[in-house]
Amino acid sequence: MLSFLPGLFILVGAVQYAPEAALEARGVREGVVVVADSATGKDGKNHRLTLRTADGEELEERLAYNGSGAPRVGERLDVIRDPEGVVPMERADEVDAAGRLGGLIAGLVGWTLLAVLAGWRGHVRRRRGKTDSLLLSL
After folding, report:
1. pTM, two decimal places
2. pLDDT of amino acid 1
3. Which domains does the chain have, with CATH numbers?
4. What is the rounded CA–CA span in Å between residue 40 and residue 61?
5. Which residues are listed as membrane-spanning (predicted)?
6. Could you give the CA distance from residue 78 to residue 53 in angstroms, rounded to a whole number?
7. Taking each helix axis from N to C terminus, what angle separates 4-26 and 97-127, rounded to the nearest 10 degrees?
8. Alpha carbons 125 and 11: distance in angstroms, whole number
9. 102 FRET partner, CA 20 to 30 A, in 13, 17, 79, 113?
10. DSSP states of 101-131
């Protein structure tokens, strides 16, 4: 049970680090204006925003936004998009590859420390001759 939180950091960090690192490394940052919003889903919380650059060019890719508080039509945003089209576009203020890497490293360190402590506890219990269940006795 103690390894759940570090494991969650590892899972989230591993899944989200690669796309954000790709956007940070090769992404193109540009200012855009929201020109249309097509909300779908039961609550209308799945938004697909149509964006236009400062040059007046409408972007082919749409920005996906899930949840309430989506940017309104006419609102200006900074986005980072992948010129190769491999990684989906993100709002620039939400891309934090360094933070994701920090979470991934913290999860790995935490999980490693808990595994070593659990192994040491089992080793000490076996040396003392206690072979009953470790789950119920403290």
Report:
1. 0.57
2. 63
3. 8-26+94-115 (no CATH), 28-81 (2.40.50)
4. 17
5. 97-120
6. 10
7. 150
8. 31
9. 79
10. HHHHHHHHHHHHHHHHHHHHHHHHHHHTT--
